[in-house]
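Figure 2 data, in text form.
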Amino acid sequence: MAAWQRLQTTVILLLVLSFCLYLPSLFHDLFTDDHIYLAYTNRFLRESNWSELYQFLLRPANPLEFLPLRDFTYWLDFRLYGDEPLGFHVTNLVWYAASGLASFWLNRELILLCQPAWATRATVLSLCGALLFVVHPAHVEVVDWIASRKDLVAGTLGLLSAAVLVHAMRRHWPSRALLLSALLLGLACFGKAAAMADVLFVTVLIGLGWAGSSDVSRSRKLSTLLLYWTLVALAFMIHFKVGESSGIRIENHPGLFAVLERASLILTALIGILLFPYPLRFYYDVYQFGEWHWLVTVSAALILFVSLRVLSQRRSLWALGVVLTLSPLAIYLQLVPFTTWSLASERFVFVPVAGLSLVLIDLLGRMNSPKKIAWLVLLIVLPSAALVWSRVADWGDSPALLNREYKLQPAFHNAVRDRIVFTLLPEKRYEEATVLAQKVPRSYAAEALLSLIGLEQVYRRMSETNSATVSDESETVRQEFCNSVAGLKVTIRNGYEHIPNEHDVSFNNILRTLDRQMKFRYADAKNICARGSAVSE
């Protein structure tokens, strides 16, 4: 017993030290979307008071997503910290600590449900799982990026929902606990829409406890399941409608095989991030894989099928871990395209890491040797901690991070886009930007980037030649600027016409980035061109 106690103390110490690896993120600056559509230029989040909070429920607080819970956390941060990035990073760390606690609780409840013989070791094994969850290198992006708050919020609430459900299942399905679990899942769906996929794991949990709870009425079990699915269906309809109006959901029908191939490529990339998180990247080009991605997808499907077959016969931790690992990935497969900045990303595996840790808990529990468990945990934790420390340092310098991403994938269009928009154009390196834009493999995307480069040059020249009085030179440049703005709008519109048949819908992100530049960088274009027309008249 003393050996188990020493193991528990060691794991707690490692857990605290692993969390401390993220402390440097408190002093990091903002990164890309932190500045733009989420918080720092959002007047509603910055200026609204308590009496206006109901507005969160009536419309999206940012141009793209209806996530009132996530946006409320931003609003609260502004009330507490003002414009200080430190406070926003503190909140991210608090949510990450909460996610670690939620994973611990879920681990413990599942051990008591599936392996009651391990009850005396449930706490230490659950701590091992929480440690493996916290120290996974792919979590750095979620913790360090303020714009990824939605993953923290939704992931934490989703894990808590599952933990409350399992706790209720072990105690004769009390109504209050079941309602609380469903409410947490519903809230998670408005922390991030991807949390809707959590209902798949919840369904498996309810199915697992169905036969083992003969003292609970069938109607209660069925009504519980229907409650979860009703809430998720409602959330889906809301997100679907918002997606149609905001442009997040796009029309895309390149053919059944192309859609399945894209899903297979995305799944392969996400499994790679989950199991082999090195080197970590901000962008992942899923189309770099060879035909072997089908082997990964078929293997994952077979493992999932076997897991479900096992769960139909008995309660199994590893099988539940497989379901929790794979089921949250389903929503990211772009079967109904809700486009993101990348088809695969580290933040997409935030919840699946909890499933992976559950599989490892099953392995550790079967070892039944504190010494062997300690060595295996150290074997996993030490290299993971080194990767976390290195990755946190990468996030400390935003320009350097983008430059690193471009060097890792100089031919990937998302990296090229950000190289042009955030590095070359601000530094007036127009010739280099033009050469890069011409290498983008889709002509419509290349033309749009070239239009942006031309517009930026004219905009800079107009800013330099502007004066209090109207001269022939300034009027000529102003007219050239207005023509360039119109030209960029045309190329963006032409680009969107290609998206319905586009296999790689992440090219849509180039067009969205240019739309965003029009809205923020050249926000005064309408007034400039209208003023010039009035003067000429």
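Caption note: The mean pLDDT is 90.
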